[in-house]
Amino acid sequence: GASVWVADLCGKQVVRFSPDTGVIQERYGVDVGVCTIDDPVVVPGGDLVGTCPTEGLVVRIPRGSGPVETLANVGRGVNPIALDPSGTSVLVGFGISEDRRLLRVPLDGGPVTTVADGLPAVNGFGFGPDGLLYVPTGGVPGVLGTGGLGRIDTSTGEFTDIPLTFPGEPGKLGLQFAVGADVAADGTVFVAQGLNAAVYAVDPTTGVARLVGRSPVGVADNVVVLTDGRVLLSNFFGGTITVFTPVPGGTYETWQLGIGS
């Protein structure tokens, strides 16, 4: 069945769990040298690569055995990460307004290169089927309702803002702290709102944002959409995931999934 990797920044660990039961299937922590990891991706061959914002590192976590390896020291605040569609590198960004770079880190240990600079503060991002990188924008100041969404052509570094509209919420101009984005196979971009935790489904062509559902957690952290259409929302506190399951009629059922062994 499906499984999902999630990072526990404060616990300095990554775990793989079942989105059906919440049972932890695999775990790597400080015993193998995991740092304050914020965002992991699975790379070709099965290993994990993640960002550690406190230490400023991009690290590889070998599956099965072996200590954590440093791929690059790119600077404090490194946060979002996505596997390049080529499978040969990862793209990493910074969740702080003081560092506006998007970097390419080769998996073979080659030199780090700058893809773009001068970007808005970005957070958890993901590639779409069109090969573009979809990024939530606004950073922490977005808690006032100015968080948004953009896309980056990683071949040129060009950033394009996607103006959002919220037909179901008159007066809403933006997201309250846009913290994560993931893209479904059909191109729909699912964006997580951190404060007043919620997920929105965005048509990247029109910018229309439709509410998927809200979460009872205090502050959301990131979002992932599964191949079966389920949308998972993680949070900053506690060991639960909010699961939004599509049902007939285009709506979603919401339930809480506890993560544990």
Kindly describe this structure:
0% of the residues lie in helices and 47% in strands. It is mainly beta and 261 residues long. The strands form six sheets. Strands 4-5-6-7 form a four-stranded antiparallel beta sheet, with no helix packed on it. A four-stranded antiparallel beta sheet has the order 8-9-10-11, with no helix packed on it. It has a four-stranded antiparallel beta sheet with strand order 12-13-14-15, with no helix packed on it. A hairpin with a 7-residue loop joins strand 6 and strand 7. The model has no long low-confidence stretch (mean pLDDT 94).
Q: Report how far the terminal alpha carbons are from each other.
A: 17 Å
Biggest sheet record: 4 strands, antiparallel
Number of E-type strands: 23
- How are the strands ordered across the major sheet? 4-5-6-7
Structural class computed from helices and strand pairing: mainly beta
**Run of helices and strands:** EEEEEEEEEEEEEEEEEEEEEEE
Unreliable parts: none
Q: Would you tell me the overall average pLDDT?
A: 94
3D shape:
globular
**Radius of gyration computed on alpha carbons:** 17 Å
Strand content: over 45%
- Helix proportion: under 10%
The number of helical elements comes to 0
